[in-house]
Amino acid sequence: MNKITQLFNIKYPIIQGGMIWNSGYKLASAVSNAGGLGLIGAGSMYPDVLREHIQKCKKATDKPFGVNVPMLYPNIEEIIQIIIEEDVKIVFTSAGNPKTWTGHLKDKGITVVHVVSSSKFAIKAQEAGVDAVVAEGFEAGGHNGREETTTFTLIPMVRENITIPLIAAGGIATGNGMLAAMILGADGVQMGSRFAASFESSAHEGFKQAILDVKEGDTQLTLKELAPVRLIKNKFYNDVQDLYSQCPSREDLENLLGKRRAKRGMFEGDLVEGELEIGQIAGLIHEIKSVQEIVDQIISEFEVSRTKSGNLEF
């Protein structure tokens, strides 16, 4: 029995990343209905909106689903309370100290997973009592680790240091990628970019098309002084690079970033001035598909490659 399918009571060890502005209840419930684990992305939701999405997700699926909670966001205490009140059974935490909420959530019977970008933080997450970790490589979209460690090197190093279940993330969008991650020591995979380019994603259609247009080298990790983020190279990205040439202060970068930049790009479709967060693997994504088609294709490819290699089962 695969450790991830067992932990979450799901059919396939595929987790959908809880991406801001992409991961509403429609995407989360569709992934869960397809046999994976869907996650509602709380990072882009006010508390009352999150509650609404949780309630709608319950109606849209009878399968397990969870909520992704970036701990650096405001209203964190209210968000945690809503998750508990709505009886959500699975929480993925990120961007913060796992000790802060893990014990409280687990006392409520909630399965807790923490997202890390290094072996050091994976060990700390295990010590904090989480049930599993997501080790996310430098290839990933959105907010990312400063270390620039790639998934291919990160997964075996984290596996060497922890005993709890390990989920690989960053640069995975295919069955072959899933197989590679599991051969390297992962028990399952988390995919963001591939599900962002789905019919059920809550992202703007213009942003979905921008994902399809991405070629190798069209994304870059930047804004490390604030919170490292991988962006598509558009006018806003170029403005950031121009500012860097002037040796900016942190305040200068914050002023350029402003507020609602990610919402403008991914949710409202401003492909010029918006922040367009996506992973390097977007260069392999050529078509918007339904979640069911995506999962079916991943599993089919995984099984063909696994049979050829005579390796791995779940």
Could you characterize what this model shows?
The structure is a single chain. It contains 14 helices and eleven strands. It has helices at 3-8, 25-33, 47-60, 76-85, 102-107, 119-128, 151-161, 175-183, 193-196, 205-213, 235-244, 250-257, 261-267, 291-309, and strands spanning 14-16, 38-41, 65-70, 90-94, 111-116, 132-136, 142-143, 166-169, 188-191, 219-222, 229-232. The chain is 42% helix and 15% strand. The chain folds into two domains: 3-202 and 284-309, TIM Barrel (Alpha-Beta Barrel); 205-281, no CATH class. The N and C termini lie close together (6 Å). The strands form two sheets. An eight-stranded parallel beta sheet has the order 1-9-8-6-5-4-3-2. A three-stranded antiparallel beta sheet has the order 7-11-10, with no helix packed on it. The model has no long low-confidence stretch (mean pLDDT 95). It has 314 residues and is an alpha/beta fold. Helix 6 (119-128) crosses helix 7 (151-161), helix 8 packs across helix 14 and helix 11 (235-244) packs antiparallel against helix 12 (250-257).
Record keyword descriptors for this entry.
TIM Barrel; single chain; 314 residues; 2 domains; three-stranded antiparallel beta sheet; 11 strands; alpha/beta; eight-stranded parallel beta sheet; 14 helices
